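SECTION: protein entry
WANTED: fold as tokens:
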Amino acid sequence: MKTVLVLEGGGMRGIYTAGVLDILMENKIKIDVIIGVSAGALFGVNYLSNQPGRAIRYNKKYIKDKNYMGFYSLLKTGEIMNKDFCFNKLVYELDVFDFETFRKSKIDFYATVTNVETGEAEYIPIKDLEKDVEYLRASASMPLVSKIIEINDKKYLDGGIADSIPVEKAKQLGDNKVIVVQTRPIEYRKKPVNMLPYKIIYRKYPKLIETIHNRYLKYNQTVEDIIKYENKKEIFVIRPTKTIPIGRMEKNIQKVQEMYDLGKSNANSKIKDLKQFIRED
């Protein structure tokens, strides 16, 4: 039986997940499979490279740098996240990522992406992050503010469009121990979005438009399913115990630290129960 970790995205709200992961690393929780979505994938890779503290460190240091992410990058490059800064300079120079430890990790890592032409989620196994980094970038390429990522004649965007919290994918992997890290409190539900900009920008991709239109329904149903599975003790869930108003591209370092600290606190308070959950047959 394997332990499968599912990581929701949410832009800078995902720093909550980084806090949770740091507690899991500190407690040497053995994870066999990670399925990350968007920011969940971006921060989840640090589990395989065994670099606790890295995500909060570089975010606090660089979130106010106009070349990192934000509207300056969007105007300059057409991407809300600056590709050269985030996936080159940051990982190779400013806060070096341990690619070798990632490659040697025995954890199976999947980045969730949305296929633009089919509107369906795909779960891409990443073995070598240097070779497969474009899939990681695709997983976090938010619609409207990111370019479509083309890999091997396929077109991708943010995995959260088609599957924000891949708990069903985790359960399909077998009779395993599933841990879900959400980035919203239990009472949160999505609402419909204004579809006009999506219909204009993605008019060539009707199935993607349909997926975006129905996203709030799928998300809300997934949340209900997670609560049901949790009540039956079929899965273990760690989620924010309170709402911290934090934007997807948050620049307030204090808010980022608060969200990260909440992740650490929530995970720490559940660590004893988590260890018991993993041990149970």
Notes: The mean pLDDT is 95. The first strand starts at residue 3 and ends at 7. Residues 88 and 94 are 9 Å apart (CA to CA). The radius of gyration is 18 Å.
